[in-house]
Amino acid sequence: MEKTFLFELITPNKNLVSGEFDMVVVPGEEGDFGVLPHHSNLISQIRPGLLNTYKNDKIDKSFFLYSGFAEVSDNKLIVLSETAFDINEFKLNTYKDIISKYEKLKNKTKTESEILFFEKKIKEANTIIEILN
Amino acid sequence: MANLKDLRDRINSVQSTKKITSAMKLVAGARLKKAQTEAESSRSYVNKMQTIIDNVTSNINIDSAPEIIRGKENDKTHLIVLMTSDRGLCGGFNTAITKLAKKKIKNLLNAGKIVKIFCIGKKGLDHLKREFNELIIDSTPISTQKKIDYEFAAKISNKILLMYQNEEFDVAHTVFSLFKSAIKQEAQLKQIIPVLDPDKNISKKDEKQDNSIYEYEPEEEEVLKNLVPQNVAIQIFSGLLENAAGEQGARMTAMDNATRNAGELIDTLRLNYNRSRQAQITKELIEVISGAEAV
User: Fold this and answer.
1) Same domain for A49 and A33
2) Chain B CB within 8 Å of residue A110 CB
3) Which residues of B touch A114 (CB under 8 A)?
4) Can you tell me whether residue B108 is helix, strand or coil?
């Protein structure tokens, strides 16, 4: 029996990861869950949190996911996420800048849909800072 | 015969046009490569999203599903999200997209539906303004964006979803051009709201009979509720990227043709120019000779 399985992390812009791993721990909506080879079929929503990939019992890479979906089928784990990045790329200041940028934009606009959108973005950046800092 | 100076001016002007078109061709070629990779990398996300949605929808009871999935009882108001480019000079690219949109709009109007149009990209707005000005509810240009990013698409989808919540429309379609290759783009019409297309639904159900069973976390309905808005955003995003790649491809082909035509035109003009020059020399010689003979 194979000891690894295929894991792909896909964002709208690019495929962040595609490779064989021993285990992947996914931040599911109802709690973290580990995926090992031959996991049963599952579709889960993702809550903001860290996704860890394991190779030879060690953490290989860690990613931050804000939202998205994970699908396990045919010994494959596919994670779709709108906001996902390697935690090594995280810089506090960029997100602080993002918050102030959206605050400014929010104060300028008057349309309801844009205000909602910017509020969502600010909340997202705040959550990212909260979890990773 | 045209006078020599006119011909010379004409040749010069065609030559400078040729320079511009060949430069545009090169620029489009360079941009195409980038746009193409972007469009292709977004496809895996779109396809995967579609599989998940198909899986979920085949596993739930359609009748109890929320309206955004199975559709409302009556589909009176239709929204057409028309995606075109901001710039012209790209052959029949925008015309093909707007033609498809116009056909759909006319069909809907003939069937007695109310149509609303949302234009993304200036060209589509220009094309439709004359015929359907009163139907256009909103429009946004693309070129204000430095780069087409997911955020731009998310903003638009947010707007559309809000309109759906406020019951401003019942069914939404996107019209865009699918990038097949640099010389081939195909205008496409895609239903984004509701998720289930009644026409396709029947055939799909038969295929899904042997589908594997999934566990859901949280419940199916909950997952679906969150899948749908993301799906709308990604559909718009991928449409925009496909369009961007198609636009560059179409421009490259159009400019290649233009450059070739300019070359041909220059050859003909130059032939004419040389002929008239020789004719003039001959005429002058005859004048000199006959003048000398007369003396």
Assistant:
1) yes
2) no
3) 155, 159
4) helix
Structural domain containing residue B261: 4-21+255-289
- CA-nearest residue to B150 within chain A is A12
Using the structure block, give the residue that is written with the tokens 């089928």: A73
CA–CA gap between residue B93 and residue B184 (Å, rounded) = 10
Cβ–Cβ < 8 Å for B212, A73? yes
How many other β-carbons are positioned within 10 Å of the β-carbon of residue B144?
Answer: 8
Structure tokens given for B28? 């489009």
**Residue B211: band (very low, low, confident or very high) from pLDDT cuts 50, 70, 90:** low
Q: Do B222 and A45 touch (CB under 8 A)?
A: yes
Residue found by looking up tokens 């419940």 in the block: B219
Residue of B nearest to A121 (CA): B151
Residues A82 and A56 in one domain: yes
Q: Is the pLDDT score of B32 beyond 90?
A: yes
Q: Do A126 and A75 share a structural domain?
A: no
Q: Which of A15, A45, A116 sits opposite B223 (nearest CB)?
A: A45
Are A68 and A113 part of one and the same domain? Answer: no
Predicted confidence at residue B210, as pLDDT, reads 45
Q: Choose the closest CB to A80 out of B45, B150, B214.
A: B45
Q: Which residues of B touch A73 (CB under 8 A)?
A: 212, 214
Overall domain count for chain A: 2
Choose among A123, A106, A126: nearest CA to A115.
A106
Residue type, A121: K
Residue B294 lies in a domain: no
Count of domains for chain B: 2
Please check whether residues B192 and B104 belong to one and the same domain: yes
Instruction: Name the residue among A15, A45, A121 with its Cβ closest to that of B226.
Output: A45
Residue B239 shares a structural domain with residue B261: no
Global pTM reads 0.86
Report ipTM (2 d.p.).
Answer: 0.84
Give the structural domain span for A103. Answer: 90-132
The answer to whether residues B74 and B91 belong to one domain is: yes
The token pair at B130 is: 């004359």
Asked if B45 and A117 come within 8 Å (Cβ–Cβ), the reply is no
